[in-house]
Amino acid sequence: MNPFTLYNPTKLIFGTGAVSKIAELVPQKARVLLVYGGGSVKKNGSYEQTVKALGKRKVVEFPGIEPNPEYETCLKAVAVIKKHKLDFILALGGGSVIDACKFIAAAALFKGKNPWKILTSYGAEIKAALPIGTVLTIPATGSEMNQNSVISRRATTEKLAFANDLVFPRFSALDPAFTLTLPDRQISNGVVDAFVHVMEQYCTRPSDAPIQDGFSETILRTLVSEGPKALRKKDDLAVRANIMLSATMALNKLICIGVPEDWSTHLIGHEITALYGIDHAQSLAIVLPKLLKYKSSSKGEKIVQLGKNVFGIEPKPKKAAIEKTIGVIAKFFKKMGVGTEFADYNIAGDAAKEVSENIAKHYGAIGENADITPKDVEKILRL
């Protein structure tokens, strides 16, 4: 295990009625930008409860955040903040809304002329940010309890991530009841996204880290067990609670401390989404099984461990265990209704080449060992 520092200042409020607690957490004199996406928040009760909790505070609403939040939309929100002299941001929605709010919080206080530098510097240009709170309605990204954000720029077909401790949410309210009205597609995407988040931190190389591995395997087993149930039992609040907590714990720094991290599946997936507009989780489902197969020599030990401890697959012979484990992961994604091939999303043309060219433009070599080159990406996507 490597030396590490664990820092997470987000206060998590979990359970039925969690939103009422934000009345105590948003400063009484705060001037709030309330950010959300479409109309779903007005159907699941979260909007009404949030507005009630904010009480008589000055609130300006900013709806319309896209599923892959757009840079230009975020800049419009920054203009609203400056016009009304707002000093607190409340995100109401899923990971896209929360990611957008993190960028908005940083861009609102950015001193330079080009806020895009926040993304091209991976957050290093952030020197200050407005405080953020969140009310989560879609479990998936874990953005409610971390300092990460991903923003798209359709004009240049770019989708870039950044991270900075200044954009950790001050608090996040999680009520599983808000997820009962989600369509199957969002349930499926959320479970797959959370699963791959864990894999990026777990399926690298052995690190003598049984605590982190154990946490990771528990999250994965929970997602594999509860994900399909959520598609069958639409009103099972206990199932939704388990999925919601799994997604949060999958990316709040708990399981990555002291261990190597990969994130190549996400970086490749971001380019697929930027180029072809498919859902984030759909892009991950295309990449992960292929990447595991391509890197099975270096990831073999962890793949076998995963197969044994999560799926109950016999670890010997090793080659068979690796192949079976990768196959079971692909089957799980399909069981959740998320396809694993470009053809499942009607993506034509030479996607492998186009994606690898974008990886070359943005990153160069990626992966926990920095040994996945753009040429490797092309080979991975052709499997």
Q: How would you describe this structure to a colleague?
A:
With 383 residues, the protein is α/β, with parallel strands linked by helices. It folds into 2 domains: 11-177, 3-Layer(aba) Sandwich (Rossmann fold), CATH 3.40.50.1970; 194-382, Dehydroquinate synthase-like, alpha domain (Up-down Bundle). It has 14 helices and 8 strands. The protein has helices at 22-25, 46-54, 71-84, 95-107, 117-120, 184-202, 210-232, 237-249, 264-276, 280-294, 296-311, 318-335, 351-362, 374-382, and strands spanning 11-14, 31-35, 58-62, 88-93, 132-136, 148-153, 158-163, 171-174. Strands 1-8-5-4-2-3 form a 6-stranded parallel sheet, sandwiched between helices. Strands 6-7 form a two-stranded antiparallel sheet. A hairpin with a 4-residue loop joins strand 6 and strand 7. The longest helix is centred in the middle third of the chain and has 23 residues, at 210-232. It is globular and about 65 Å long.
SSE series: EHEHEHEHHEEEEHHHHHHHHH
* Shape designation: globular
CATH architecture annotation name of the largest domain: Up-down Bundle
Total E-strand runs:
8
Biggest β-sheet strands, sense, barrel:
6 strands, parallel
CATH class of the largest domain: Mainly Alpha
Distance between the termini: 33 Å
CATH topology of the largest domain: Dehydroquinate synthase-like, alpha domain
Spatial strand sequence of the major β-sheet: 1-8-5-4-2-3
Structural class: alpha/beta
Going by CATH, what is the homologous superfamily of the largest domain? Dehydroquinate synthase-like - alpha domain
| Number of individual domains | 2
